[in-house]
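Objective 1.3, modelling of assemblies. Example input:
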Amino acid sequence: MILSGDPPRSRALSILLVVIIAALAVAPFVFPGAKAMNVATKICIFAALVASYDLLLGYTGSVSFAHTMFYGIGSYAIAIALYSMGPTWTAVATGLAIGLPLAALLALCIGLFSLRVEAIFFAMITLAVASAFLVLASQLSWLTGGEDGRSFQLPELLRPGTVLIPKDWFGFAINGRTLTYYIIFFACAAMILGLLRVVNSPFGRVLQAVRENRFRAEALGYRTVFHLTYANCLAALVAASAGALNALWLRYAGPDTSLSFSIMLDILLMVVIGGMGTMYGAIIGAAIFILAQNYLQALMSVASNAAADAGLPLLPGLLHPDRWLLWLGLLFIASVYFFPTGIVGRLRSGARQST
Amino acid sequence: MTDIAASDALPKPKRDLLPVLLPVILALAMIPLIGSGSSWVTLTMASLAMGMMIFIMASGLTLVFGLMDVLNFGHGAFIAVGAYIATLVLLPLASWVQADSLLLNLAVLAPAALAAMAVSGALGLLFERVLILPIYGQHLKQILMTTGGLIVAEQALYALWGPQIIPTPLPTSLRGSFIIGDVAISKYRLLAMLVGLAVFLGIQLVLNRTKIGLLIRAGVENREMVEALGYRIRRLFLGVFMTGSGLAGLGGIMWALYREQVHASMGNDLTVLVFIVVIIGGLDSIGGCFIGALLVAMVANYGGFLVPKLALVSNILLMVAILMWRPRGLYAVTSR
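Predicted structure (tokens):
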């Protein structure tokens, strides 16, 4: 019921999912450190963000480069509202009430403009619009704080200083930070389950039909532009919500954390690694990728230093942690080429062969 | 059935002149808004020069998309690589660049441009063989793969040259401007315009007056038919791809000299600009691409002069306006 009749369909995949979700659910108690909490939160938020991107890339087959723009709209809406109205719940509500419709409206405009013609048009136009938005966000500094972004205070209840259950009651403390984490966790879980419901509805079937053969879907009488635009708006809404959650966690919104092109690449990579058109791939991809990002970059810096000490030419530069994107790009090309179905696709086909 | 006698001329395709007139109309409409005649001439010359440079960069993308139905999201990488290769020639010979002699200046610029084109072209060969060959006809994968290629190329530039900005000063004899009356025309802009015009005419000549051009145009119209007639369209593809990336390299060095600096992120930034031009032009038409480049440059220059704040989003507004008018761009050759 809760999975909308689309179970993982592979034992290994189910186990992996259960492990990830269980680890995330108990993260504040088992991994209480600041860095581990950040990683857990980022996995939750990106799982939802990547799932919404999967709705576009995996289910309708259209590549959008504007997904970080919607993510950024959500982030900035919350940040600007809390910054200018002070740390109240009204401000949070105002931010959501402005940010989410704005994202949906923008998605509607882009969709109506570019989805009429072809996937390639959509990709190019989203890229152009997203880069213009990035420039706007960093130039309109009276509104967005420019390159510095906006830091803000959270409402009283969500602050780390607010102790809800002191440590001496049950042996662990629950403070405002833990509460924020659980708000994010459950909101993201709800969004992913909602998206799972969408893709398994008749509407989702039409999207897949459009992906497989747009001409035939149109000939069957579906208004494909309407369906694609609707999917685009839905994805934008979820992305903006994920952005808002991200801003709440970081207490900050800026171009680097919410709009930059490298986040877009991260999202693309997570979808491809996890498996396009599966929804579960979003959770797996986000978990693996963010763990690797946070713990492998340290390894790269060690390797880079070792190579520099050994006096090797070129290698220290190539292995420098700032060149993380280089290896990511290579990994991306390799995974599009060799594993187009991603981890979920692999696990499922393995399960089918064995039965 | 109507009889057509053999002596009758074939029906001529309808000429569609409105897009051609668009830049002219735009330029004329700006005269009263700008007011002063000399600043109008300066701005118009600046737009023409900038437009030609953008055209050189975008033409390769258009050719490749038109003929091969491949949209290369990594096109910007060739631009950046061209600029960086040019610095390899320009920086060691800096004394020649600074020398006040046109001959010495050109003796540096020519090999720099040739090296930029050659290396970009070679990179194009690699790109086509490694990234695009396995996935012809699959748009989704092409977009993903070439985007990956752009990232890898950009990061490799960072790793090899470092993240700092490399200054590329203009050669001495190209500095300054010709002054006619109270109108100043910068020498480098004039050169850029001449090169751009030469490239445009060259492409048009090759496309319209040679057998290779005939095959390319036929391939754009109907690829299978050309193959059925026994031509190896694969070789043609590769040649066009390498030419396109070579032109991007040439555009890269010209842009580097125009801005007088080189940075690894330039490929990424210019990709967006080039895409807007190609969308406006109609994706697969050289003429449309040319007009699109001029329009983008004009809007950027006039807009920057009249309403500086607007310049940030002027390209997007122009694109939206054009697509409202013609949803497939100015000249769409094929109706894909």
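The interface with chain B takes residues 57, 61, 63, 113, 116-121, 123-125, 127-129, 131-132, 135-136, 139, 261, 265, 268, 272, 314, 317-318, 320, 322-323, 325-326, 328-330, 332-333, 336-337, 340 of chain A (CB under 8 Å).
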